[in-house]
Each structure stands twice: as structure tokens, then as C-alpha cells.
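hi! just following up on the protien thing from before. the input was this:
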Amino acid sequence: MTDATTALQRSWRRAWRAVVAEAPQQDEALLQRLLAAYREPQRRYHTLQHLAECIARFEPVQDLAASPAEVELALWFHDAVYDVRGHGNEARSAAWARDELRAARAPAAVAARVHDLVMATRHDALPRPGDAMLVVDIDLSILGASPGRFDEYEAQIRAEYAWVDEATFRGKRRSILTAFLARPTIFGTPHFRAALEAAARANLQRSLDHLED
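and the predicted 3d structure came back as:
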């Protein structure tokens, strides 16, 4: 078992058991289903590597969350469903989280909040301040990664969309990256803005320059 897998198991048990007092067998079975989902062969970026990076970003800042366990569970589920040719991955992931929490008799309000936190990762609108903003910033933290890791991320995204022709991919990717750069700030929380905003803007501009070549 790798250190990353051990860290993920620790994270899962911490978060799940904080909101669900019962069903330890469901806890372990669901963990294995989620790990299997992130290992699906069509994934190149939205993998266990991405999940582990999100959890690693979360752990030092969990005190910033109003409901840390809910934020952690949302990170676990936010890419649980990932069909590169489909739509509504976030909605299906959010529904999976909500349904599992309901089945485990977690409070209905908790299930609803985790569902909504996952939906915030659609990135189609700026999240409200609070836990949703923290989840979104963690999900976007790859944009402020080291240049080497960011370049790997860009290659992984291209590999996930290998079935899209180059001209179409470049056009859509330019639109996405330009939209992020056009935001007044990429990160909503003061912590991630201070830590990653400058690096993210440099990475995005470098990627855009490459797409223009």
C-alpha cells in the first residue's frame, strides 16, 4: 500500500465517520467503490492523483471550514463520476454523495450541503463565501502548482480529450483559460489567493502562449 493510499484512507474514515455514526461496513465498501471510480481507465487527470492533491491541500486549512467533514466528503465525491464524453458529471457525483449519506442515515441537512458543495465544482458561477468557496479553491489549486506539475496537468487534460481534434481542443481550451484569467481573482479565499494567485496567472498565461504557437 502506498503512502498516498494510506493518506486517502485516513482522510475518508475521518470525514465519513464524523457525519455518519453507523454503518462501518458501508464506510469501507463505499471507500473501495470511490477508489475504483478514480482509477477508471478513461481518466488521466481526474484520478487518484488529483484526489490526493485535493486532500493534501485541504488538511492544512481544514480550520478554515465551517464544516470540515462536509468539505472533505465533497472533495472525495466531486469527480466521483467522470465521463469525458458526457455532461452532468458534477450533478451525478453530487447525487451519489447525497444518496450514500441518506442511506447511511446522516442528517438530511448534511446530505444536502455535501450535494451543494459538489455542485459548486461546476465552476459555472463564483461560489458564495464559505465552505463552497473553499472547495472550489482546492479544486482549482492545480492552476497554481509548480510549472512542472502544471504542465503535466495540461498534458493530462489533453490526454483525457484525445478524441477531440487539435484545432477544436485548442479553441475550447483557450476559452476556458482566458475566462479564468479574466476573473478579478481566480481564488476566492484569502488563503489561496495569497498562496497561489500569482503562480496561477503565470501558468495560465504560459499555457495560452503555448496554445497560440
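DSSP finds ten helices and no strands in the chain.
The longest helix spans residues 190-212.
cheers
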